[in-house]
Amino acid sequence: MADSPPSAFDLIPPDYRLRIPGPTAVPERVRRAMALPVLSHRGPEFRRVLSDCVDMLRNVAGTKGHVFMFGGSGTAGMEAALTNVLSPRDAVLVLVCGQFGERFVSIVQGLGAEVDKVDVPWGGAPDAAEVAERLKQRKYRAVVCVHNESSTGVVTDIAAIGALLAGTETLLIVDSVSGLAGIDVRMDEWGVDILIAATQKALMSPPGVAILAASDKAMRVIEAAATQPRFYFDLRKAKAAAKNSETAFTPPVPLILALREALIMIHEEGLAAVLRRHRRVAGALQAGCVALGLPMLPEAKLRSATVTVALVPEGLEGSAIVRHMYAQYHTVIAGQRTKLANRVIRFGTMGAIGADDIMTDLAQLEATLRHLGRSVAPGAGTTAAKAALEAV
Ligand code: PLP
């Protein structure tokens, strides 16, 4: 090769702003933890790192149950949850209200299990009464559901679904990949048996670690009933290793050091304060978008505090907004790649996010809309956001 490729330090614009619904911007303190020397994954230092992560994750997830970490993304966690509880021909009820519910359907089908679906129009949330009806008709190994559907910005009422399964043998499997640490999660109180999360969202760490928390009820199925082939993601191996504060295989040590630092930051701020900040900042961004003529996709009571999904006005394409925000400001926001392509734009409001971030978003969005030919009252978005911030 004639020339070396440019250093990554020269590839990234200095004013680059990562504002998509994950991965999210990682605070410098968390990034610095990754630059520490790599530790032996079976030595006393890393055992301490891992067990601190487990304790702090239990607190954030509201569980006294088992917590496991694997090198992998959120989808690895989704697949691991299912391979560990299913046997071929088991029946699974998947609640689908967006792209990640559909991903669960594909995974279950790929594993040769039988899928029934509760399908909800995108922008809505599954209704517990309909789930109750379906549970009367068939015995399911698991009900599978996305807590915070990142494609639509909708939160599902997990407590209501969990209440339907209390005292039954059916497991409740919940993807809170884009929820955990940004919206309330009460795994034990709500009756969740397997909770799936990932580091690159509200846990304000880099991508690369899938997190699974499991109840004793789930562990009984995993250990005694499930016959799906599994190896790397086998939670029986993970549980045995966890007894010594270890993982079964070599974990991504620097990423887990980063996660520990992020969890300490959450602990220092206080979980209740962290969740309040997410609600306040997201509410202000949402008010600002509405004032700029971009209504929210979900109705108010379903709206997420970690992902804001705004409808693009008639005559505009979401991709044009996304492109201009990057070309002009190096701000990266998301569109949607499947059913809602070009009809919505999406922002993350998770992790290390504050009022200044969304004020910048709204100022840039206003200028972008004007550039694309919309007439917008000057300062409409930031004024509405400021009023929303002051009201809380
Ligand atoms: N579930 C939800 C709700 C998500 O938002 C995502 C990622 O955006 C995933 C699952 C999949 O995670 P990953 O892209 O890390 O595999």
Summarize the structure.
With 392 residues, this protein is of the alpha/beta class. It has 15 helices and 13 strands. Pyridoxal-5'-phosphate is lined by residues 22, 73-75, 100, 146, 148, 150, 175, 177-178, 198.
Describe this structure in words.
This protein has 392 residues and is an alpha/beta fold. The protein folds into two domains: 28-267, 3-Layer(aba) Sandwich (Aspartate Aminotransferase, domain 2), CATH 3.40.640.10; 270-391, Alpha-Beta Complex (Aspartate Aminotransferase, domain 1), CATH 3.90.1150. Helix content is 44%, strand content 15%. It contains 15 helices and 13 strands. A seven-stranded mixed sheet has the order 2-10-9-8-5-3-4, sandwiched between helices. The chain is globular. The termini are far apart. The relative contact order is 0.16. The site of pyridoxal-5'-phosphate has 12 residues, from helix 4.
SSE blueprint:
Layout: H1 8-11, E1 17-18, H2 28-34, H3 44-61, E2 66-71, H4 74-85, E3 91-96, H5 99-110, E4 114-119, H6 128-137, E5 142-146, E6 148-149, E7 154-155, H7 158-165, E8 171-175, H8 187-190, E9 194-198, E10 209-214, H9 216-224, H10 235-242, H11 253-269, H12 271-291, E11 307-311, H13 318-329, E12 331-332, E13 344-348, H14 355-371, H15 380-391
Helix pairs in contact: 2-11, 3-11, 4-5, 11-12, 12-14, 12-15, 13-14, 14-15
The structure holds pyridoxal-5'-phosphate.
Pyridoxal-5'-phosphate binds next to helix 4.
